[in-house]
Amino acid sequence: MAAPPLGLELSYFRRFIELHGGIARFAGLTTAQVCLQFVVPHTASTALSLVEHVRLHSSEASSVRTANWYVSHAWSYIFLDVLESLEAFFPRVGVADPVVWFCVFNNNQHDTVIRPFSWWQSTFKNSLAAIGNVVLVMHPWTSPVTLTRSWCVFEIYVSRCVGARLGVALVPSQQARFFDDLTKDIDLFYDMLASINSEKAQATIPSDKANIDCVIRDEVGFLQLDRTVFATFEGCMLSTAKAALAAATAPRERALSELMLAHLYDERREFEEAKVHAEAALKVLVQEAGFDNLQTITARAHLACTLAETHVHQSRWEPALREAVAMLVNAAGPLSAVTLKYEARLGRLLSSHSLGTSEAITILAAVVYKMQSLYGPRNHRTLIVQSWLDDAIAMESPSSWLPKTTFGASYTSPANSGSPTESPSMMKNE
């Protein structure tokens, strides 16, 4: 294995800012602008990368050491946001002052030699394998730019290939919003993952995209890469939720972290783990927020679904789930995401447990109709519930797969149309 490349201590980033006039001069600048306005002039006398310039021509050469983290980011990101994201991330993983490989500082910005993609590919792969850790900066968390950039997607792929550890860094304000959003609707996270489409990722240099696409087609394929990215982010999310639970001090804060873990384990079909966390969340929420609180009702609904998936007797989950769904209609509204989610799960469970397929079809058809109006027919939430409806109808009447009277004579089920927009979250619920 190649020796790990050099990098700069993260603390040097602040020193670099001080050397060039302080925070005010960097405010609002993208990473690309910082490169052109500060890095290139700073290293002009030596025509070296900033890392080599500091190592060979600075009194702060001790800031250059063996890199132990690789930073994956988009050049369009605000530089200070990237820095704040990293400064918030590393304490959470127990790293006091990491030494990072940061392309703006590590690559020689004066080097005009055009190297073949194969050189970049092998150099990058060997370096990443030697470093062993990757942190992906994500802004905004609902639609991160990094997942639309070919190089960033390629970096995630290579990190998996070489067995590198992958972490996700959010700017502090995004971190707070992230947890607030997901405690209200965990499916927002899966909405984000469902948007992953590595084939549509772009690169500044068209030939880079062409070369990266060629490697992906030859080695893994776009669909499998999307699944890999999906699984990677789901794993990161699980680790983040566990860390949040460990750090929580207030009872309600712990309960919401427990509920988030219950949702995540449920999506992974690890129902015994999901049940443990759902029970813990519900116990605290009943005490802290009351029986009629929306989060308490959500926890009740989720626990009932989890119990059903662990094949306990229907008397332990069906009445509780029906009651929780009725309460959600009143507490959150009939068209809220959480109400539709658990109405749909009630329909699917009635069908899969053979407890009333006709009723299940009625419930699922109504949810599909609402979701088509709210989210659109191609939205991944709609498609998942549509697939459950198709399954229920097939059980009820195998000879007539889908009654045309439901959605019209020309209707074809999106879930069975062979659409190229199939998302990883759909696959998980098959």
UniProtKB/TrEMBL annotation:
Residue span of region Disordered: 410-430
InterPro entries attached to this UniProt entry: TPR-like_helical_dom_sf
What is this protein identified as? Uncharacterized protein
Q: What is the lineage of its organism?
A: Eukaryota, Sar, Stramenopiles, Oomycota, Saprolegniomycetes
